[in-house]
Structures
1.
Amino acid sequence: MKSLFFVIGCVLIAACSGTTETANGSAEKTAAGEEIDGMSIYQLTSSWQTQDGNEMTWKDLEGEVLVAVMIYTSCKAACPRLVADMKNLEEKVGKTPVPVRYILVSIDPETDTPERLKEFAGLNHMDGGQWLFLRSTEDNTREFANVMAVKYARISPLDFSHSNIISVFDRKGAMVHQMEGLAVNNEQTVEAILTASR
Amino acid sequence: MKATILNAMWLAMALSVLYGCRQKSDDGEENISARAVRMKVESQPVKAELTSPPLVPKPVGNRPPQKLIVDMEIIEEEGELADGVRYVFWTFGGTVPGSFIRGRVGDEVEFTLKNHPDNKLPHNIDLHAVTGQGGGAEASFVAPGHQKTFKFKLINPGLFVYHCATAPVGMHIGNGMYGLILVEPAGGLPKVDREYYVMQGDFYTKGKHGEPGLQPFDMQKAYDEHADYVLFNGKVGALTGDNRLTANTGETVRLFVGNGGPNLVSSFHVIGEIFDKVYIEGGSAVNRNVQTTLIPAGGAAIVEFKVEVPSNLILVDHALFRTFNKGALGILEVSGEKNHLVFEGEVLEGIYQPEGATIQSTPVSEAGAEPAKPLTKPEKMQLGQRIYNTACFACHQPNGEGLGEAFPPLAKSDYLNKDAARAINTVLRGLSGEITVNGKKYNSQMPAQVLNDQEVAGVLTFIYNNWGNNGTEVTEEQVRAQRK
Amino acid sequence: MQTPVFIFFSALLLGMTQGTVKNGMSRVEGGRYVPMYGAGKNEMVTVASFEMDRLPVTNADFMAFVKQFPRWKKSAAPRLFADAGYLKNWTEDLSFPPSLSEAPVTNVSWFAAKAYCECQDKRLPTTHEWEFAAMAGYQHRDERRDSLFSARILAAYETPKTYLKPVGQSRPNYWGLYNLNELVWEWTSDFGSVMMSGENRNADARDLFCGAGSLNATDLMNYAAFMRYAFRSSIQARFTINNLGFRCAR
C-alpha cells in the first residue's frame, strides 16, 4: 500500500524530481507564450525566501535579466570582493531597457535568515529594488549551485569554501555568460548584461 | 613564471634599451621571452602537426609566429609493456610518450584536450612550456567524455616536458601520461639530417619484470621507487629490432630526449658515440663533446652527433641494470661506408659493469624451487621464446644475430653447438674473457641469469632449435647437473 | 516488472537476510571516520546510520523509472538537467541493447539520478556516507590500511569498460553492498563540495593537482580515494559519462 502511495505521490506532487513534471515532454509556455528554453532556470521549481521574507520561485523573475552570485554573509575573505564585483557591475551597466536584477544567493541558509540578509544588504548599501537576496533549503541551494556549476563545502561551523562565479541569465532564464574569479576584468560581463537587457 | 616576473622582464627590457648593449650577455634570455610576449601572429590559425614517437613534426624553419591549433585526445588503453606483458596505459594521443608538439617562440597555442568517453578518469595537462597557473593544469582539467580548450603563448624557447597533473599525479605519470613539446627559437634550430623522439619512463607492475599477462600498477613499488621496467618509448623493444632508429654515415642526428619519470633520473648515453652538442636540460646553453647527459624526471635534453661509421649505436640509461634487466635499451643503426680513420674495428665497445670485470656472484642454487612437471618440447619452446625475448634479445638480438663487437651471435654458432653443458653453465654463471665464435674474437661479459631449471632448459632449447643451430633439447636434469 | 514498486516489495520481503540477497537495501551502521577530503586535517566526521542500495541502479531499473516519468526520457530531459550525452548507450527512448539490462545505468546526470532516488522515496548518498560505506572490505568496516584491499580497488579502477558488466557478480562488502568500487563511479548528493584549486581564496587551497594534491589529503597512500575525489571535482551536475552511475540511500 505504502509503495503505491509513493508512486502516486511522484506523479501528483512532482516534488520527487525537484523540477516540474511535464507530460510527455510537451514544452511549457511562459506568460508571453514563448517556449521555455531547455536551459532555462525557470524549470527549477524550488521555492526561495527573499530578504523581505517573501516566498518566490525563479519563474517569478520571468522577463528580467538576472545576474547571480552565491555568497554567505559571515564570510570574511572572498565574499566582500564578490559583493564589490556585483556593485561594480551594477554601476557600469546602469539603466537598461529591460530591468536587470542582481541576486545574491546564500550558501548558508541556516545562518542567513531574511533578517540577516536584510541587514547585510543595508550595511553594503544594496537596498535598491534591483538587489535581491535569497535563501532556501540546503537541498535547493545545492541544486541551484549545480545549475550554476558552483562548488562549495562547509569547512568549519562558520566558514565555507566556494567557487567565485557570477552568472548572467537572459530574459528566458537561460544562462548566457559566466565570470569566474575575483576582481577580474568585467568588460565582457558588462557587455553580456547590456546585450541581454536590450 | 608569474605575472610579477613578467613585469620585471618588461622593466629589464626597458632598461636594456636605455643602457644599450651593456646588458646583452646577461639578460639575453629575458629579452627573448619579453619580446616573444609582444610578437604578432599570423591571423590564419594553423593545425599543429602531432607525431607519435619516435617521429617528430617538421621543423619550423623561418616561418613567422602563428596561431597553432593543438588537438589532443587522452586514451586509457591496454597495451604491451614487453612481449606477453599487458598493461593499461593512460596516454596523450594513444602512445607512450604522448604526441610530440612543435612550435616556435611567439606562437599562440589554442589547445584542446579531449578525454575519451570510455576513459574512467579525469585528466589534465601541465605543459612545462606554459607560463601560467599550473602550466594549464587547472584550465585543462576535464572529465571523461568531455573536452576543454585553453590558450597560451610560447615565450621561452627550449624542449619541455608535458604531463598529466591530476591526483594521484605519480600514478597518472607512472601509467604513461607524459610527452614533449619543443619551442624553437626564431629562425628555428640549425638544420640536421635526422631527428628522433625518445622518452624514458619507469613502470611498476604487480608481477616481476617479464611476468606475462595483464599486470596491474603496483602502488607500493612506485612509492618505494622500485621499478620493474625502465623503458624508452613505453615498451621493451620499442627502439630495437624492426623498430630501431636508422641513419646513414655522414649524417647529423638530433635526438629529443625526455624523461617522464615518475621517479628515476636518466643517465642518458649512446654506446659508440659522443654527443657533439648537448642543449643542456633542453635549454639554450650548449655543451660539447659529452659522453653521458643527465636527464631529470620531468626534464629533457637535445643531443646531436654526426655519425661517422656504420655500426649499431646503443641508446641506454647508463645506470645499466636498467638497460640489462629492465628494458632501457634502443638501437640506432648506422649504415654506409666504413671509415677506417675513425674506427678500425679492433677496439671493443664494452658494457660498463659497476661490479667490475669479475662474474657476479648470483647464487647458483635454483631460485623458486617448486617441483614442476616436465614440459613437452613445444611447451619448452614457447617458454624459451618468452624468456629469450625478455632476457636475451637485447644483446643477442631478435634472430640471434648478435650485436657489434661485444655480443656474439647465437645463430649458427659453432661455440654454442659444440658444447651444451658449457652453454648451460654460461646461462647459470655468466661468462667473461675472450672466446672465439665463428672465427671472430669476442671479449666481453655476460651476466649470470636468474632463471629456474625449467626456464634455463626452455631458453636453451629454444635457441638450439632456431636459426640454423643443431636442434639439441636441453633437459632440466642437465641444468640441475650443472648447478652442482 | 522491475518497477519501483517491485523494488520496494523485494526490500520489504527479503531485506532481513542481508548479505545473501542482492536486491534491496543494506543498513550501514553509523560511526566516525576521517575522510580523505572534506573535513579538516585528521578531523573526524560523524555519519549517522543509513540504508544504501545493495546494487548500483541498472538500465532495467532506470527504464522502469523512465516509463513512469516520461520527462526523463532520453529525448525529453531538459538540457539544463542533462547534457547531450544523456542515456547515449540507449538505442531509443525506451530501448537499450539487451546485454545492458543488468549493467549499471550510466550517462545519467546528477539531476536524473536525484529524481530517480526521490521517486523511490530515497535520496542520493552524501559523499561522506558513500566513502564511509566503501571503506569496508569483506571482513571489516574499515580496511583502508589493508594493502590488498587498496590494490584490488586500484586494479578495478584501471580495468577498462567495466560499465558494460552486470551488477552483483562479485563478493559483497562487510555491509552486504555490491560493486561500490568495481563497475562505475557513483553520484553523491554533494559531489560539488569537492573543490578544485583557484576557486577558493578563502580557506586553504584544495588543490587536487600535482604536489598540492597532497596538501589537504589525510591519507597520502589512499590512491583509490584520490582518484574518486579527483573525479568528483572534475564533473558538473549536467554531465553524463559512460563510467558514471549511481545508487540510492535512505
2.
Amino acid sequence: MSFVKNARLLAARGSRLAQNRSYSDEMKLTFAAANKTFYDAAVVRQIDVPSFSGSFGILAKHVPTLAVLKPGVVQVVENDGKLIKFFVSSGSVTVNDDSSVQVLAEEAHNVEDIDVGEARQLLAKYQSQLSSAGDDKAKAQAAIAVEVAEALVKAAE
Amino acid sequence: MMQRTQLLLPLAMEATVLAQQQRGMATLKMISMRLKSVKNIQKITQSMKMVSAAKYARAERDLKAARPYGVGAQQFFEKTEIQADEKAEPKKLLIAVTSDRGLCGAVHTGVARLIRGELAQDEANTKVFCVGDKSRAILSRLYGKNILMVANEVGRLPPTFLDASKIANEVLQAGYDYTEGKIVYNRFKSVVSYQCSTLPIYSGATVEKSEKLAVYDSLDSDVVKSYLEFSLASLIFYTMKEGACSEQSSRMTAMDNASKNAGEMIDKLTLTFNRTRQAVITRELIEIISGAAALT
C-alpha cells in the first residue's frame, strides 16, 4: 500500500518538477561548518560527499535525501570547473527537492591547509590512546579519534 | 537587650542633636561621598561598556559566519513541513538559551517571559531545559518543578560547537521523550534591537510520521536518528551564537545608558555640592561679621 502511495507522491512531484524545471536546473549549495561558512546558497556544478552509507556525488536534480557525513574529503566542483577539496570531521548532508543542498559540518578546512606531519603525529597519539584506553567509553572515543585522524592523514597526503 | 536600648537611646538623641548643629558641614561631606561613589560607578559601567563592545564585535563576526549554518540546519524542517502529531499526548520541551551574566537589559527576562507564557498554558506536559543560570533564577520560583536540567558556565566565553553538542547530548540522554519542542532564544537584528523568537525541534518519531519524508530517498531510521541528533546540536549552536550576540549588544546599550545616567547624577550632585559649599561660606561670613559688629 505504502509503495503505491509513495509512487503516486513521486509521480505527482515529477510532473510538478517538469513544469518549473527552468530554475531548478542549478544546484544551490550551502556548505558551512561551525568555524566558517564556505558557500552560502552558491550555485555549483557537483559535490562529492563521504557518508556512512557510502560516498556519493550530487548533481542538480539529485533525488532528495539525507545522509550523515563521515570523516573525509568533500569535493566541490564550481561552475567554472574548478575543483576544491575540503576536509570534514563529521556532519550532515541534506538534498532537498528544490535542488538545494546543505552540507553542514562540525568542522571543515581546506585540504591545502592541513599539515601532513602534524596529522601523522595526531594519528600516532590517538592510536596509543586507543591501546591504553581503559573502559568502553574511552575506547569508543579513541576509536572515533583514530578514524578522524586516519581520514585526516589520507586527505593531506 | 532592653537595657542596651535604654543605654543607646540618649546616645542616639545626642547624635541627632549634633548632626542638626553641624548640618551644613555634614551634608557637604555626605554629598562629596555620594559624588565619589557615583563617579566610581560610572567608571565601572564605562569600562564594562568597553569590554562588551569588544566582545560584541567578536560575537557579531562569529554570528555572521554561523548564520548560513543555522539557516541550513532549519531548511530540512521547513521543506518537509513537519507537524507535531496532534492526536498523541503532547509532551513539550522548551530550551531556554540565556547565559549566566546579568546587567544586559531585558535579554534574559524576554526569554523567560515567553517560556512563562507557554508554561501557563500547559504546565503538566511541559519541561524546560535551561541553558545559563539566569533563566533558571527567573523560572525556578514559579516553575521549579518543570525545570528538567540546567547548564551553567555559559556566557563567560563565546559559545563553541562543543558546548552545543554537550547540551544536545544531555537533552537526548535526559530520558524525556518529547513529541515537540522549541528553542527559545534572542534573535539578533541590529546593535539596538533583538527579538525573542523560537525555533521548532522535533523528535525522531514525529519526523518519521511526516508525509513529505517519503520523497526523500534511501532513509533508514538510523540515518534519520543521527541526522536529527546532529541537527539539534547545530540548531543549539546557532541559537547560542544569536543569543550571545544579542546579549553583548544589549549589555553595551545598557551600560552606555547607565554611564549617561551616572553622568547626569554627577552633574546634579556637583551643582548641589557647590551650592552647599557656598552657603556654608556665606553663613560663616555672616557669623563672623555679625560677631564683630556686636563687639564694636
